[in-house]
Specification:
The complex is a heterodimer of chains A (200) and B (1081). Chain A has 200 residues and is an alpha+beta fold. Helix content of chain A is 29%, strand content 29%. In chain B, α6 packs parallel to α7. Classes of the chains: A alpha+beta (200), B alpha+beta (1081).
């Protein structure tokens, strides 16, 4: 194997699949776009949605943490995903985890909040293009019709044989984010590329 | 698959949930105050209710919330869900069973059919019937002697060449293999399984019992009905004596699956199904129409009626934006919550020309709000003497072969019927040029249809039946006599005998959905009665045969279904149906009376006759389920589609009861056979199960590691060098690590971040030992038990901060431990302010192990004071290692001086390579899980799940020191005082040293007391749980669970290995460095 590929740093979970994802994107003629969005900031935030911290953290982040299950709220480059009644995933551009974490902790003050940096726990795969919904439907039992899973929706569910967090992006044509545990990322990439064969 | 409504996320597939047993079984407030019996009742006893039952579920693959559900254990219906901590709501009444089809105005159950143009018209070209049942292939259509010149929907411009039983023939696109054979004059298409009798093509669809063939080319596939195989160029098939052969090479084709959701699923695109779909088409509702044929139309394709309307409706549906039409798609299973499975045959019909990137078959997993079943009816046969000769065919099927495929099943036909429907078929066939010599009707007064046939010049023999047939490879003659009499016989020369014993609604899917069937006296068969799900049955599947009624019923059902979902239906255009002759009631005949000794077959595919059924009833069997199992009737590949009701009727006659009292056998999925390849879909080969890898995986691969599967993880097992076997490699890795320095990838260990003001209190409840006294900056080993006191997991706990801990778990248990934590937090201790988050992949971990490890870490971490007094055992430090931010822990799983370096997985490879380089002067050696196991076993450290099996307490493992005596309670504490857990003869973990230091004990070997085996039963003292060769000890050794083992140290026991009893000495489990001198380097 090429030493350069091994020593380049930092390395994302799908760095070695990037070429294959790009080739599938190219060969599908716009039907399917697959790409890793590596190194995004991801913070798991736990707090009492009815407590004082919720408002204070929301103010500090410039967005209201979503209270409706399986929805997202976006503000600027920051996206807040509902993961549970007291759990959210904040997603932002790479490198922002420290600043974001201290902003939340400062806003919460003495109120109990848990903030955990999970930026490397999962990586993000962009699945877009005219065939994105059909591609995901090969392995996702959720109803992905725009009426049921349009912009503003997210879900923790199963894709193929691995758990994922699925996010519908703002513009319907912008497709989906698929957040997957890093150790399952190579499997998911293989699965997506296999499922995409028919669209190439 | 059940749809379970998560109180947070809404309805999700059952597969996303974990079951958690009975709800509202609270953890006792003071377990220590309970008697052993009371505690055992809490631990082991649960209700076993039939009916509504409150139970706990976790949305494990979703929001990870625990909640409660009331489920009816007899129907699996979820009656209500409520959040954890809420009281059980009043049990709602179960949903009443809806009728399969609501009361329908003006509905009349009448015989089907339409007047056909009278009399034989067009001639048939080609040669005379070949009585040997074969024809030889050649050039062009002229070599298809039984091809009708004009009829059929085949593409006459496309000539396809195929081979059957070694002979080459030609057919057309649009043929099935069966119709192409018929067009070539071949009707003999198989040999019966038990009796070896010649069998012919019997039907034109999935119900085919006889013509079950083996495809040889392009890819071997066994047991396909020739009536369902679309013809393609280059097809090579052979007839089968009963059973086929699987391919020996892996199937090169792709298979996949799709999940689909709709407001309305219509199954079947015959007149009723098309009308239902058309009513819903442009309403905005999401509609799926699935049909097993390549083109829409259903029975209309066979009768060639209303084809303009079929085409117009197909265009309408194809153009409607929210309608998905699935052709060549068989809905084969109907499961809970309107979940239906279908298989779409996408490229089979293209043969060798199928594109490689398109899946050959696709499984559709359809979740439908409403279902309309328009699955049609199968014509029923009759049990008369020698009713199995090639040339005996269902009447409607012959009509289908002529009208759909332009294939003539014969030239001279006799018809045997008990009802009106065969008349329409006979008249149509006559108009196609087939000579219909006679219609034999069992009814004494057949009515207006018979008059029409007579007017067309066909002799009608009322009150007659067929009493025998003649012929070999093809039928030559039919014997007819007045019904029930032997006198007055007449013989007709015929190469075709068309049979109609009435119609069986295809109620398979309805029955699978939980619906019940009832006997319909008019139809003489079983029809859908009450349903359990949101489903309606329409058309002949519901027992309605009148064409106008079928159309209106379908349209009404489609409209009702989408109205219920909030959409406004349209009134679809339905074709005008010409006036029908007045129907005459059918006669219900199953076994045709006669004196002949010849076999009267009920199940052609299983060679089951009326005589076989008589033996079953003679043996005292009184139920069709029993006669089915006794005779195998209905158990073949066709699952008794033509024989089921016939068998019920025959058994009823034999028992002298009414068939309505006897019922039918149970219908179970799949409706038609589905290949395993299709069901497996994409989940095969590399994708059959996810492979989890660490950030260092490619390095391991590049350095020749062999891998061990640990759960879904691939972990390096050992790194053989230059032809080493496993034994040599592991001895080398062990020696290098104990004498110098080794390193391994420990990233797979589960890691959970535990945060909150109550984190310490929570961990005190979870672990057997005390965690709240741990100081920030320090690490403690801990054991977790189940409430029954048995070890569940172990690992280290790092105190990151006052309110924050990092817990590690075993590799295989990471998810289970997190679920366990959530379960207690959410369901028992919701007042605790603590949150748990998985960070397994947030960190990569490199274990640096051995006496020289301090030098290696020291050279890489200049800012780290590495001296033992600065950085003691079980402490952790934040620093930079190889210029990478790291958390370094002094933890040892080998007894050696060791460091665990935790970094971001994005930097893991850089760190790993830096460690490799820095360690090179000390001969640093990468090692895998096998060496890790040897090193830990030499120190007597157990592996949970290898040395334990869910029946082992910490005390059994010799780890009483890890069980707190000070804490008032923790999970498992009460159980340590149970009589059973304090028995002196419990199995203890001990070491074993074979007396021959080279003797190796396989894991699992039993241990016995004496040097000679007594007569069985031999008292077993325990078994070997781990066994290795030790470089450090220079010998083999093992760990074992042995009854009262700690009291036996020094004793000799025997291990039966093969034929030998190997003498072993019981020892302390700590065999290496028992004084712990090596830990600090």
């Amino acid at each position: 194997m090429a030493d350069t590929a091994l020593t380049s740093r930092p390395r994302s979970p799908l760095s070695r699949a990037a070429d294959r994802l790009a080739a599938a994107t190219r060969d599908s003629g716009g039907m399917i776009r697959l790409a890793e969005l590596p190194f995004l900031t991801q913070l798991d935030v736990r707090l009492d949605a009815k407590g004082a911290a919720a408002g204070a953290v929301g103010l500090a982040l410039g967005l209201q943490l979503p209270l409706e299950p399986d929805t997202v709220v976006r503000a600027g480059e920051l996206t807040a995903l509902w993961l549970g009644p007291d759990e959210w995933l904040l997603v932002g551009p790479p490198g922002g985890e420290r600043e974001l974490e201290s902003r939340i902790r400062e806003a919460a003050g003495e109120e109990p909040v848990s903030v955990t940096d999970v930026s490397a726990q999962r990586t993000t795969v962009l699945v877009a293009g005219g065939g994105a919904r059909d591609l995901l439907a090969h392995g996702c039992s959720l109803d992905l019709h725009p009426r049921a899973f349009g912009s503003g929706r997210c879900a923790q569910t199963t894709l193929g044989r691995t758990q994922v967090v699925l996010v519908a992006r703002e513009e319907p044509s912008a497709g989906f984010w698929v957040l997957v545990r890093s150790s399952f990322a190579a499997y998911l990439a293989d699965w997506l590329l296999d499922a995409a064969t028919e669209y190439l | 698959m059940l749809l379970i409504p998560c109180p947070w996320c809404g309805p999700r597939d059952e597969a996303e949930f974990h079951y958690g047993g009975q709800a509202h079984v609270a953890y006792p407030e003071t377990p220590s105050a309970l008697t052993d019996e009371e505690w055992a009742r809490y631990l082991f006893f649960r209700d076993n209710t039939k009916g509504p039952f409150a139970e706990r579920w976790s949305h494990a693959a979703g929001c990870r919330r625990w909640f409660n559900a009331v489920r009816d254990t007899s129907t699996n219906e979820i009656l209500s869900v409520y959040r954890s901590g809420e009281d059980r709501p009043a049990t709602p009444a179960p949903t009443p069973a809806p009728p399969a089809r609501p009361a329908f105005e003006g509905e009349a159950v009448r015989a089907a059919g339409e007047p056909a143009s009278a009399g034989p018209g067009s001639g048939v070209e080609g040669a005379e019937s070949r009585q040997d049942g074969t024809a030889r292939g050649g050039e062009g259509e002229t070599t298809q002697p039984f091809r009708h010149p004009t009829r059929g929907r085949i593409d006459r411009d496309t000539l396809l060449t195929f081979t059957f039983d070694g002979t080459q023939y030609q057919g057309h696109r649009g043929d099935t293999l069966a119709s192409a054979l018929l067009a070539n004059g071949v009707i003999h298409a198989g040999t019966s399984i038990k009796l070896g009798r010649p069998r012919g093509i019997f039907s034109a669809g999935v119900e085919e019992p006889n013509a079950v063939i083996q495809i040889e080319e392009p890819f071997p596939e066994p047991m396909l009905p020739a009536t369902t195989v679309e013809l393609y160029d280059g097809l090579v098939a052979t007839s089968l004596p009963g059973q086929g052969r699987l391919a020996t090479a892996p199937d090169p084709a792709r298979y996949d699956a799709v999940h689909a959701h709709c407001d309305l699923l219509v199954v079947g695109a015959g007149p009723a199904g098309l009308a239902a779909a058309a009513a819903a088409a442009n309403s905005g509702a999401r509609v799926i129409l699935a049909d097993d044929q390549p083109e829409l139309g259903g029975s209309l394709l066979g009768t060639a009626e209303h084809l303009d309307w079929v085409g117009e409706t197909a265009d309408l549906l194809d153009a409607a934006p929210e309608v998905r039409v699935l052709r060549r798609t068989t809905v084969f299973g109907y499961y809970d919550d309107n979940h239906l499975l279908a298989v779409e045959r996408r490229t089979n019909h293209l043969g060798g020309a199928a594109p490689a990137n398109v899946s050959r078959e696709r499984v559709w997993r359809i979740r439908a709000r409403r279902v309309v079943l328009a699955t049609g009816a199968h014509e029923r046969s009759l049990a008369f003497a020698d009713n199995d000769r090639p040339g005996v065919m269902l009447a409607s099927s012959a009509r289908t072969h002529v009208n759909r495929h332009g294939a003539l099943p014969g030239r001279h036909a006799v018809v045997l019927t008990t009802n009106d429907s065969a008349y329409a078929a006979a008249l149509d066939l006559a108009s196609a040029g087939l000579a219909v010599t006679a219609i034999v009707d069992t009814r004494p007064e057949p009515g207006e249809w018979a008059e029409r046939a007579t007017a067309a010049g066909i002799e009608v023999l009322a009150g007659h039946a067929v009493t025998g047939t003649e012929g070999g490879a093809r039928l030559t003659a039919v014997t007819v006599a007045p019904y029930g009499e032997s006198a007055g016989q007449r013989e007709f020369a015929a190469d075709l005998l068309l049979v109609s014993g009435g119609w069986n609604p295809v109620a398979h899917l309805f029955s699978q959905s939980g619906g019940t069937l009832r006997h319909d006296g008019t139809l003489g068969s079983f029809v859908p009665d009450t349903g359990r799900q949101a489903v309606e049955v329409v058309g002949s599947a519901s027992g309605v045969l009148d064409p106008a009624a079928v159309l209106a019923q379908g349209a009404a059902a489609g409209a009702r279904a989408i109205e219920a979902e909030g959409y406004t239906p349209e009134q679809p255009r339905l074709p005008a149906v010409a006036a029908q002759p007045r129907p005459a009631p059918a006669m219900h005949v199953y076994v045709v009376p006669g004196e002949s000794d010849a076999p009267r077959f009920v199940d052609l595919q299983r060679d089951v006759t009326v005589a076989d059924l008589a033996r079953a009833t003679g043996a005292g069997l009184r139920s069709v389920e029993h006669t089915k199992r006794y005779t195998t009737a209905g158990t073949a590949n066709d699952q008794g589609k033509t024989s089921g009701v016939l068998a019920s009727g025959a058994v009823a006659e034999l028992l002298g009861v009414d068939v309505s009292a006897l019922g039918t056998t149970t219908f179970r999925p799949p409706y038609t056979p589905v290949s395993f390849a299709a069901l497996a879909g994409r989940d095969r080969g590399l994708l059959s199960d996810p492979v989890r890898t660490t950030a260092l995986h490619e390095w391991h691969v590049g350095h020749g590691a062999l891998f061990e599967n640990v759960g879904q993880w691939k972990r390096p097992w050992y790194y053989p060098r230059g032809g080493e076997d496993m034994e040599a490699a592991v001895l080398r890795e062990c020696a290098a690590t104990r004498e110098g320095v080794g390193f391994m990838d420990a990233s797979t260990l589960g890691k959970i971040d535990v945060q909150g003001p109550d984190a310490a209190a929570f961990l005190d409840l979870l672990y057997t030992n005390m965690m709240s006294t741990l100081k920030v900056g320090m690490i403690r080993y801990g054991v977790m038990c189940r409430p029954d006191g048995m070890v569940f997991d172990d690992g280290t706990v790092i105190r990151v901060d006052r309110d924050r801990f990092l817990v590690t778990t075993t590799t295989g248990n990471a998810a289970a431990v997190l679920d366990w934590m959530e379960e207690w937090l959410q369901t028992e201790w919701p007042e605790l302010k603590v949150h748990c988050t998985s960070v397994t992949e947030q960190w990569a971990t490199v274990a640096l192990v051995g006496p020289r490890s301090r030098e290696v870490i020291g050279s890489l971490a200049p800012g780290l004071a590495v001296a033992n007094e600065d950085f003691p055992f079980m402490a952790w430090r934040e620093t930079t290692v190889a210029a990478i931010e790291a958390r370094v822990c002094r933890i040892s799983f080998s007894g050696e001086l060791a460091y665990e370096i935790n970094v971001s997985p994005w930097e893991a490879l850089t760190l790993w390579e830096a460690v490799y380089e820095a360690g090179a002067p000390y001969g640093i050696t990468p090692y895998g899980t096998e060496t890790m196991h040897v090193l830990r076993a030499e120190k007597g450290y157990p592996i949970i799940g290898q040395d334990t099996d869910g029946t082992v307490t910490p005390q059994d493992l010799g780890m009483g020191w890890a069980v707190s005596k000070k804490k008032p309670d923790f999970i498992g504490k009460r159980s340590f005082a149970r009589a059973d857990t304090v028995r002196p003869d419990r199995k203890h973990l001990v070491g074993l040293l074979p007396e021959d230091p080279a003797a190796f004990l396989p894991e699992g070997t039993h241990l016995v007391a004496g040097g000679e085996l007594p007569a069985p039963p031999v008292p077993m003292l325990g078994h070997v749980t781990s066994s290795y060769r030790s470089a450090a000890l220079g010998r083999t050794f093992a760990l074992a669970l042995v009854k009262g083992g700690r009291d036996r140290i020094g004793e000799r026991l025997y291990a039966p290995v093969g034929d030998r009893l190997v003498p072993v000495t019981v020892a302390s489990p700590v065999l290496y460095d028992p004084e712990g001198a090596r830990r600090d380097g």
